[in-house]
């Protein structure tokens, strides 16, 4: 009886631990396939509040991971900032800037210099969330469909000013555009 109880406790403990971080895509080359699967992927807002990225977003969710100083990020962030401003009133879309830095000090200074939107800016201290979600290089953009499934992933920079990039995001909003 004691062995059965120990096995049951082990299975329950293992199941609980696995539920804390959603599973990575099976081939390990893609980011997290479904953020609606449960668990915790936390980032920190400037006011110290934590946000869990896991859950059904019910809109297109653009997660942009970056690190400064970095020439690719320095080039891309102003374009993404302008795109985010252009879609700020679109209830079917959210842009989230996630900076990897040891603390808010260096991230805040760079974000102010680049005029990134403070309400959309989060810190991933030490890159734990980026690692768990499957980010493999910076900058990296993950675009999730409203149901929480990964629709697109871009390692490296994107040109946020092109009609092709904008059309791709519009397609995701309307149920298409799954490619990563």
Compact description:
The chain is of the alpha/beta class and about 180 residues long.
What is this structure's SSE topology?
Layout: H1 2-20, E1 42-45, E2 50-52, E3 60-66, H2 71-86, E4 93-99, H3 104-114, E5 121-123, H4 128-133, E6 140-144, E7 150-155, H5 163-173
Parallel strand pairs: 3-4, 4-5
Antiparallel strand pairs: 1-2, 1-5, 3-6, 6-7
* Morphology: globular
User: How are helices and strands ordered from N to C?
Assistant: HEEEHEHEHEEH
Helix/strand class:
alpha/beta
Largest sheet, in brief, is: 7 strands, mixed
Using only C-alpha atoms, the radius of gyration works out to 18 Å
Mean pLDDT: 86
Distinct helical segment count: 5
First-to-last CA distance: 49 Å
Helix content: 25-40%
Number of strands: 7
Strand residue content: 15-25%
Low-confidence stretches: 11-28
Strand order of the largest sheet: 2-1-5-4-3-6-7
Describe the structure.
The protein has 180 residues and is α/β, with parallel strands linked by helices. Helix content is 35%, strand content 19%. The chain has five helices and seven strands; from the N terminus they run H-E-E-E-H-E-H-E-H-E-E-H. The chain has a seven-stranded mixed beta sheet with strand order 2-1-5-4-3-6-7. Helix 2 links the parallel strand 3 and strand 4 (93-99). The longest helix has 19 residues, at 2-20. The N and C termini lie far apart (49 Å). Residues 11-28 have low confidence and may be disordered.
């Amino acid at each position: 009886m004691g062995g059965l109880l120990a096995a049951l406790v082990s299975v329950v403990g293992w199941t609980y631990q696995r539920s804390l971080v959603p599973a990575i895509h099976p081939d390990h080359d893609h980011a997290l396939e479904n953020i609606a699967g449960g668990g915790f992927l936390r980032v920190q807002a400037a006011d110290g509040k934590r946000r869990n990225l896991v859950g059904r977003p019910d809109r297109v969710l653009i997660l942009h991971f970056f690190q400064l100083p970095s020439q690719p990020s320095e080039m891309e962030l102003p374009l993404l900032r302008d795109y985010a401003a252009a879609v700020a009133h679109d209830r079917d879309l959210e842009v989230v800037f996630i900076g990897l830095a040891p603390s808010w000090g260096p991230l805040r200074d760079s974000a102010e210099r680049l005029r990134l939107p403070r309400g959309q800016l989060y810190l991933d201290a030490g890159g734990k969330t980026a690692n768990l979600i499957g980010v493999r290089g910076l900058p990296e953009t993950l675009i999730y469909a409203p149901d929480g499934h990964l629709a697109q992933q871009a390692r490296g920079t994107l040109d946020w000013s092109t009609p092709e990039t904008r059309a791709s995001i519009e397609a995701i909003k309307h149920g298409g555009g799954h490619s990563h």
